[in-house]
Amino acid sequence: MELVTLNLASRIVLSLLVPVLVCLGTFGVLNVKLLRAEMLDDARRELRDHATSLSVAMGAAMRDRQIEDIAELADDLSRADRVLGVVIFDEDDRLIRASRALQSDVARLLPLGHAARTETSRVSATRAGNGRPVLVYGFALRARDGDRPSGSALLLRDLTYIEQNIRSAEERVALVGVITALSLIIAAWLGLRSSVLHPISLLLQSVQEAKHDPALTRAPVVREDEIGLLAGRFNELLDSLRSARASLEERTEAMVSLERRLHHAQRLALVGQLAANLAHKVGSPLNVILGRARYALQQGGQSERDKRHLQEIVAGAENISAVIEQLLSHARKGRGQLGAVDVSEVATSVARFVEVEAQARAVQIEVDCDEPAWITASREEVEQVCINLVMNALQAQRNGGRVRVRTVRVAGAPSMVELTVEDAGPGVAVDDRLRVFEAFYTTKEGTEGTGLGLAICEEITQRLGGTITVGDASIGGACFTVRVAARTTNNAEEPS
Questions:
Q1: What is the pTM assigned to this prediction?
Q2: Do the first three CATH levels of 2-165 and 336-493 match, i.e. the same topology?
């Protein structure tokens, strides 16, 4: 994110800086050219003034043939400000007089002197022998007006000061450009940081956070400009995505729930068919076997070994009959007549009923069902729920443990009767808690479980308008909680 904002800042600063630098550079070049032209014009004007005075004086000296006066005039003018000296030629281009500083440049200046004598006066720019820039003004010398030129004179002016001033001006322009560029960069950076970079960084951070947790991400809208508008549109997009995601999750959950119910219905249909076939094909022969075994026991006279075998036959037949009955009860949608049932009394009776099984497994049963808890249900169904839950709790503890059965009336609108069965076994894994109520699904090892007990409990509880859930027990294992609406009439008037 920082790299993105830095690249953006660099492009914006460059887009501002380049035009400014181009304008400053153009202004500097034009300003230096104008300054050079003005200084050259001043130098030419001053040189012409000096040359005019020199022309008059030398004309008179040439008329009187006062060569010494000409030399003196040349020396005096050489001492003028920025004047390098004078070079004087006669009509045959012979040197008459040259200032000391120009002795070495006479041969190079001779063509200019000849041109000044044969042509009109003019100003020429050249360089001296030492490379210094100079300005030369050449003019013809005449004894009288209209006479043929009797010689020529060259007046030289030093232009070194112009070059120095131009360099100083260029340095000032460069310094102004550097200061302006730095000031612009600093001002643009500070302005961009507060008005553009920081809001964009916050927006990019929100985009990055939205990748991981879009439900909690909101882009801060702290401005009313285009960036604030962009943040607002980003929040609207996130809201739309959240709505779409929630709708998708709801539909997915509904499809999963529907699939689970269809799967459960298919299992129920299979159970019904299986129960019907078993009841028809196994029930009658089983009743015959059970009746004959019981009759034989009643008659007596068997040896202890035969008696024990008959008892095992009776127990096995009863076990098979119970399984068939369980299948039939799971397949049927209703059973028994509804009435007032005290869940506390039923749970206490079931706890006493399984005491022998609990002692055999070294499991201690604790019952906390002192307060009556009336509901509207079939007593057989309530007993079946209690027996299944308590037996599951016993079977979950192979090497001893505890089972706690508790009933309580929970105040509310409406008030509920809550039955909890806890054990100290290994508990139910989180991944198995949704599937333990499916038909034929069991976490028990071997052939101890049929996978129908909890499915029957859930079906009965739902038929009564209640719920059954599984969680962690306070004593270490699993805790099954059944909640059913309490009976609304006066409990004291309820039949037992």
A1: 0.40
A2: no
* Cα–Cα distance, 52 to 130 (Å, whole number): 27
| Count of CB atoms situated within 10 Å of the CB of 496 | 9
The residue extents of the domains of the chain are 2-165, 336-493
Pair of tokens at residue 387: 């027996």
C-alpha dihedral sign at 335, 336, 338, 343: negative
The values of phi and psi at residue 181, to 5°, are -65, -45
Whole-number Å distance between alpha carbons of 288 and 286: 5
Centre a 10 Å sphere on the Cβ of residue 363 and count the other Cβ atoms it contains. 24
Q: Which architecture does CATH list for 2-165? A: 2-Layer Sandwich (3.30)
* Cis amide bond preceding 414, omega within 30: yes
Q: How buried is residue 423: exposed, middle or buried, by Cβ count under 10 Å (0-12/13-18/19+)? A: buried
Domain spanning 336-493: CATH 3.40.640.10: no
The pair phi, psi for residue 444, each rounded to 5°, is -80, 150
Q: Which residue has the higher pLDDT, 72 or 17?
A: 17
Q: What is the pLDDT of residues 451-480, one digit of tens each?
A: 677 888 888 898 889 999 999 998 888 999
Alpha helices, DSSP H, located in 282-407: 283-299, 304-331, 343-353, 355-360, 379-395
CA distance 323 to 248: 42
User: What is the tens place of the pLDDT at every residue in 227-248?
Assistant: 666 666 767 777 777 778 788 8
Q: Which residue has the tokens 């800042």?
A: 9
